Give the backbone structure.
Amino acid sequence: MMVQRTRNLGLATLIYLAMVAGGSALSAQSPKEQPAFEVASIRPAVVAGEGTEGGSRSQIETAADSLTMRNIDLSEMIVWAFGLQQYQLIRPGTLVNDRYDIRARAGDRVPVSELKRMLQELLARRFKLQFHREQRKTSVYELIVAKGSPRLPKDKSGMLPPSFPKESLPRVVDGGFFFSNVSMGEFAQQLTELRGIDLPVVDRTGIQGVYDINLKSAAKAILDPQGPSLLTLIQEQLGLKLVSAKDPVEVVVVDHAERPSAN
């Protein structure tokens, strides 16, 4: 089953009620109600190209009965498990440089939403994760369609296999950034992580689908003080636009986390 960044509304309600009560989301459920992986392995990742954008690229892959996460840090785990965007997470002061490989198997075939709930249980049990939610108004870039029609490649959503990996950063190809298998929300999230984009990017395009997006010359441009900005390249090449805005955002604040307990 393909990875999706959608929010489980029923779970979101439980999380909210738990936060009002002053506990974590998991405190609202008994152990029998909170689904858990049958087997889960958490090991330190062997990072290639450490210190580069490629070195911080993670990968998430789901199957009908398993979850595989490669080179992933705690903040990315929380973002995926709770259906957040990265800018919604106030990152923990510890573990920010720790990256892991996770292989977890469910006892049966389950939807992605259930895998996310299982990861929430794993975070609470193995990382001792505790957090709370609050509303904050913050400066963002809204990704919108510029005048005219967007200039995007063909939608791939009907051509993809049931399971395929998703990466957290674009790849550098011929001096450009190549965003593989991204929705508009994921494209916005990956833009947020790039140098040259100094605010969180929020998708407001309303465009559905999955795309391979090649932002030509962008990698070279961010290294050239005289080169075009990423905002200019996005508008010229894709027919999309980043506009400054102030948005009220619900954020998750990590209160406590520890290095994971042994397998």
Summary: Confidence is low (pLDDT under 50) at residues 1-31. The helical segments are 9-20, 74-82, 112-126, 184-192, 218-221, 230-238. The chain has two domains: 9-131, 137-248. The longest strand covers residues 240-256.
